Amino acid sequence: MSHDHPPVVIFGCGYVGTRLAQSLLADGITVRACVRRVSLLEPLRALGAEVHYMDGARPHQYGPALGGLTRPLVVYSIPGVPDLPQGEGVRRAATASGRVGASGFIYLSSSAVYGRSELTFTEDWIDEDSSVATSDADAMLRLSDEAALQSVGQTGLRTIILRLGAIYGPALDAHHAARGARQRLRTGQYKLWDGGRHFFSRIYIDDLVRIIRIAGEKAPPSSLYVVGDDSPCRQSEYGKWLAAHLGLPDPPEADASRSSGPRNIIRGRRLRNDKLKRELGVSLHYPSYREGELAIDAIEQGAPLPKLRLSDVAEPTQSVSPAIPAPPLVTESATENVAPPPPVVSPWPKAAFAEDLGTLLFSAPRGVALLHLRKDTQAALGPAYVLVSGSARAVVSGRTVDLPVGSAVPADTVVTAESDAVLLALTATAPT
């Protein structure tokens, strides 16, 4: 798998870059992480990553950082370089990448380019064609980077811009703590601004890594995508749900219009991810905050981080059956010189994985589905499971146990495949 995949260079390897590197290294892909604080990447070095010192404020270092690599894929995740003119850091990095024949350049931008949240616009859906906030100073920092990259892209470099929603996920190692609202809720620092009426879009870290990897392989030149999950929601819905889930009181409300309010921090947006899913074929494993937060629960309780191998990235979690083509309408006066209708191809037998078995057979939903789980991957939290074939382990009452075929585990149990396995997922109570 690593033989036909280009090496990946990550400029600025923080939380996102570290998780991306972990995924790539699990597939045996060459990873070169370029950062100022190399000591923070010792866990990645131990996994096999090349860790290079590089200061983004010194543009002449980009070229040497790419030396010795053939057609690398470059991921730029440096949040901003205050000692350089706006856009200059990205421009220099992209120019250096083009000179070494990079196979692509991915810039991790932000949905902050759409400006500060205003309650009058909080329900508006935002996509790649929505207006950006050119009068917003913070938004212009990202827009300047995007413009610089697009100008270099005109010279032939394949460029990809990902405008990210709020990123959340578990701790990755000793140097990269969990991201999201949990810690602020636990310390009483999380507030619901303006009654929690602002919409926010989130993306779970593992889904983001999948998107980056798929974009690196499939995205066409000069691509632009907004990145969020399938279920953006108001801050109050998420904050109150997570607080109750953690056994904490509801977070307090605060008025963002007051002087103490985060005037330039509230940048929630309701992101529409249709283009991302349509063009790249992305299928999210964590389509809402509920799946993501349950995954964090499992890791906080001792489950290992999933390895995010390429097979987990490339294959969707659900099988899609081909639609049966409808025969063309032919009238009696139009029967001559008309090609016969194409044969109707039956979709049977249909793959049963991931689809409710009742729905699959044109019956009422039964709350039961089959799940194909690959080795070392973890089943989504939520359903109860029965192991049908293969081997798996589960975390039950804080203890890891091996599951024999035919054994069942209750809902919200961490189940990890030790070999390719088939599980029966009990997603709901079957109707009587």
How many individual domains? Answer: 2
Which range best describes the helical content: under 10%, 10-25%, 25-40%, 40-55%, 55-70% or over 70%?
A: 25-40%
Distance between the termini: 48 Å
**Number of helices, where a helix is a run of at least 4 consecutive DSSP H or I residues:** 12
- How many beta-strand elements? 22
Taken as a percent bin, the fraction of beta residues is 15-25%
- For the biggest β-sheet, the strand order reads 3-2-1-4-5-7-12
The shape is: globular
What does this structure look like?
This protein is of the alpha/beta class and 432 residues long. The protein folds into two domains: 2-300, 3-Layer(aba) Sandwich (Rossmann fold); 351-426, Jelly Rolls, CATH 2.60.120. Helix content is 25%, strand content 20%. The chain contains twelve helices and 22 strands. The protein has a seven-stranded parallel beta sheet, sandwiched between helices. Strands 16-22-17-20 form a four-stranded antiparallel beta sheet, with no helix packed on it. A three-stranded antiparallel beta sheet has the order 19-18-21, with no helix packed on it. Helix 1 (15-26) packs across helix 7 (205-218) and helix 4 runs parallel beside helix 5 (137-153). The radius of gyration is 24 Å and the shape is globular. The chain starts with 7 loop residues before the first strand and ends in a 6-residue tail after the last strand.
